[in-house]
Design brief:
single chain, 81% helix, Chorismate Mutase Domain, subunit A, elongated, 0% strand, mainly alpha, 3 helices
Length: 101
């Protein structure tokens, strides 16, 4: 059995790897939300609704097939969370545009 110090070093090292990926994932999500702001402006300028449920459902199904190795329900839960916040961002952009008129 490894001694306690060696175990703690290995554990700390593994945690740093996981935290690195957490930060990378959050960076990508922040970039995604920046893209949502641009999309919202385009949608507003062209009179398009904020959400497209059929497109969202198709996106989720495709991602579930691609990432089927993840725990059941994870991809759907992830996208439902992301889509909820994306809609809030888009609605905020729509509201800002309308209030600036």
């Amino acid at each position: 059995m490894e001694d306690n110090l060696e175990y703690r070093k290995r554990l700390a090292s593994e945690r740093r790897v996981v935290e690195f990926y957490d930060r990378k994932a959050l960076e990508m999500i922040a970039q995604r939300f920046n893209g949502n702001e641009r999309i919202a402006g385009l949608k507003h300028d062209n009179g398009i609704e904020i959400c497209d449920p059929a497109r969202e459902a198709e996106l989720i199904r495709g991602m579930e097939r691609e990432f089927r190795h993840l725990p059941p329900g994870f991809v759907r839960d992830y996208y439902n969370l992301i889509l909820r916040y994306s809609k809030e961002i888009m609605q905020g952009v729509f509201d800002d545009i309308e209030s600036s008129r």
